[in-house]
Amino acid sequence: MRLLLIEDDDRIAGPLTEGLGRYGFTVDHVRTGAAGLAGTADSPDLVLLDLGLPDMDGLDVCRSLRARSAVPIIMITARGEEADRVVGLELGADDYLAKPFGVRELIARIRAVTRRTGASPFPSPGPAAAPEVAQPAPGPQLLGPLEINRRTRQVRLEGSEIAVTPREFDLLAYLAQDPGTVYSRQQIMDSVWDPHFFGPTKTLDAHVAALRRKLGDAAWITTARGVGFRLTIPGEDTASERAG
Length: 244
Known about the structure:
CATH architecture of the largest domain: 3-Layer(aba) Sandwich
Number of strands: 12
């Protein structure tokens, strides 16, 4: 399935093209609305259209595309206001995805639009996109007074259960796989969120802050400034970094 990506920000277009390629898509990338309009002459199966283009408004691109073609269009943009979504859909876009988003969500939207419009068959995932084989869940991990049970996804501190969200649990379990090791922000985002998560990494700081608060001591998760985070047992850490 051939996709035409009209996106001027290479920081988004590069990883997005790579991620979609791993799922069997062929992606043609252009950076301007004019190039996008010219690119539709090659009859892509679906268009991914950013609204904030350097030469023209993406809504005008959508209007022009729809006037000449029935190609499915998914708008991808930082504009999350309802008015923009409504206008885009009324101009003929088939779906609207606001940044930040993960590549899995985008693929789900592409799949849904493909079903609705009867576009080309959805590609079969390549080897890199094959589902991971589930590994046996280990027993509870004890770190001083902290117990992490990956099988039941429960966290206990000094015998009392702590209520954590699914993402908070994933973050804590990831850091706990090798206590004391510093994991970079990018490593954490790729593993706990999505290798192709498009959005601010401040969400990581918010989850770290929430875990520190629930664990009752910021020293459980220390900051390696300019690098990332690591899990430590309060009172047993001899490193110089202090919790950020």
